[in-house]
Amino acid sequence: MAYLSMNDVLDELILQEKNVFTLGDAARIMHKDNGYVSKMLASNRKVVRIERGKFFINKGKIWDLYEIASQLVFPSYISLFSAFQYYSVTEQIVKRFSVITLKRHRTIFVDNNTIEFIAIRRERFFGYTRDQNRYVAFLEKAIVDSIYLNTPPLSYVEEAFLAAFNRKKIEVDRLIDYSIEMKSKKVMKSVGHLLEMKGVKSKKLRGAIGDR
Q: In CATH, what class is 6-57?
């Protein structure tokens, strides 16, 4: 079915759960060439251009920066301090959204916010979930990523961990397994320190540290 109206195309993209979409996505639905569709997108008030060839459907609400940030590069997921805010374990207001990817990508500025992309090795690319159209690290992986990448400062990681632990948002076994899977003694020691702050000791973690 070919769509003549750009608003009809946008409705179809929303049905496909593609609030963030590419020029190619719209062109395929409209059955028109990229040049024609690009002009149609540029004149539509509901469409926000994020970067070349990628757009966001503005529904008139507060923009979902988590959805936008995690949909620009595939595969990718939100982590670090922005994930702490997502899980409400920090009182800090985040204006920088950190996206973990497998490949480099330039920093993007959207609605007075910064979206940064941090590339890591494939063996450390794990521990995230899909929440509606957002790809976000599990809280335990956000802690592990933060330690491994040295951002944010450890004091902020400790604050987030303690808040999460006290609210029973942390799965201790998952945190231990993720720290071991990172294959970094620094990460495992730091996670061990965090757990000891709450009186938790792990033979599995101590064993993994001793093997390295």
A: mainly alpha
The pLDDT tens digits of the residues spanning 176-198 come to 999 999 999 999 999 999 999 99
> Could you give the CA distance from residue 149 to residue 157 in angstroms, rounded to a whole number?
12
Q: Is the pLDDT at 78 greater than 90, yes or no?
A: yes
Q: Report pLDDT for 1.
A: 57
Residue 3 has pLDDT above 60, yes or no: no
What residue segments make up the domains of the chain, in order of their start? 6-57, 65-210
User: For the chain, how far is it from start to end, CA to CA, in angstroms?
Assistant: 59
- Specify whether the CB–CB gap between 51 and 72 falls below 8 A: yes
Contact by Cβ (8 Å): 85, 54: no
Q: What's the angle, vertex CA 50, arms to CA 46 and CA 54, rounded to 5?
A: 85
Are 101 and 108 a contacting pair, CB within 8 Å?
Answer: no
Distance set, CA 101 to CA 73, 105, 131, 146 (Å): 7, 9, 18, 14
8 Å CB contact between 83 and 142: yes
